[in-house]
From TrEMBL:
UniProtKB keywords: Membrane, Transmembrane, Transmembrane helix
Protein name (record): Uncharacterized protein
TM spans (from-to): 7-26, 32-50
Keyword Membrane: yes
Top-rank lineage group of the source organism: Bacteria
Length: 68
């Protein structure tokens, strides 16, 4: 597992634990709500993390970041 996939892996584990606890405490409806909110949030944060790492590699305020 590379460093770039590690935050996504940790997010998936945390989301799984929250889903299990929600199911035990509140039932299936809570799992659907947790998945509906948590999965897109995890994917967005994973995309943000990858974009941040790419920008660090190119340097801040490069012309590519500004659309040129």
């Amino acid at each position: 597992m590379t460093f770039k996939t590690f935050p996504s892996f940790v997010g998936a584990i945390i989301l799984s634990v929250i889903g299990i606890l929600a199911y035990q405490w509140f039932g299936l409806v809570a799992v659907i709500i947790v998945g509906g909110i948590g999965l897109p949030a995890m994917l967005a944060l994973t995309y943000y993390w990858a974009d941040l790492e790419t920008r660090k590699g190119r340097g801040w305020n490069s012309l590519k970041d500004k659309g040129f």
